[in-house]
Amino acid sequence: MSRVPVVIDTNVVFKALRLKYSSIREVLNQGTYHFYAPKFLLVEIFKHKEKLFRNNKQPEDEFYEYLNLLLQRITFVNEDIISM
């Protein structure tokens, strides 16, 4: 069975990174969906990394472990090919 394609937003990723136990994280961890995001999402994550840490309730190593897992689940698309 093929996975459902879903475009993922920066705010959704931020919420998943901040909250260890959330419905968003549960959905992101399912194998039901294939997530797509613009490459700029990576810039936004590292631009706001300190704020994400301040608002986070998990150790830094767990944060990076989940970030790595999440980034592997997302196919990044060059913004130049996205039509407005």
Task: Provide a descriptive summary of the structure in words.
- The protein is an alpha/beta fold and 84 residues long.
- The protein has one domain (4-81).
- 51% of the residues lie in helices and 17% in strands.
- It is built from 5 helices and 3 strands.
- The model has no long low-confidence stretch (mean pLDDT 87).
Search tags:
single chain; 84 residues; three-stranded parallel β-sheet; 5 helices; 17% strand
How is the main sheet built? 3 strands, parallel
The pLDDT mean sits at: 87
Distance between the termini: 31 Å
Query: How many individual helices?
Result: 5
The Rg value, from CA coordinates, equals 13 Å
**Percent helix among the residues?**
40-55%
Low-confidence stretches: none
User: What's the number of extended β-strand segments?
Assistant: 3
What best-fitting shape do the alpha-carbon axes yield? Answer: globular
| Strand line-up across the major sheet | 1-2-3
How many domains would you count in the coordinates? 1
Q: SSE order in H/E notation?
A: EHHEHHHE
Topology:
Elements lengths: L3 E4 L2 H9 L4 H7 L3 E6 L1 H8 L1 H6 L5 H13 L1 E4 L7
Parallel strand pairs: 1-2, 2-3
